Amino acid sequence: MSPAVIVATVTVAGTSQQVLTTPAGLTLYYLTSDTTTAPKCTATCLTHWPALLSTGQLALPSGVTGSLTAVQNANGNQVAYNGHLLYQFANDKAQGDSKGEGINAFGGTWHAATPGLTPM
CA-to-CA distance for 1 and 53, rounded, in angstroms? Predict the structure, then answer.
């Protein structure tokens, strides 16, 4: 069974906005320095930022016009939205948490993934 990606309203850096989340409501993030085929977040990074991995068909909620794909890379079969690899943040424990927003680590900045994320 593949993880579905859903859209939820989350407060990110003090502003309520639509973000991509797991079915459990955990915010999904992307790293600005990542490329689809060569993720900057590997090995130790994955203990803090677990990659969203796919094992089958991917589905976006209705009304979301972006592209959800699975990319084979060093992390496995990783889910990408509009070409941005998706991760969770280990410190987000509850639905609606967005503690990873704006963290500078692993060569870039982490941001909550939104439905309007510009394709790479």
Answer: 11
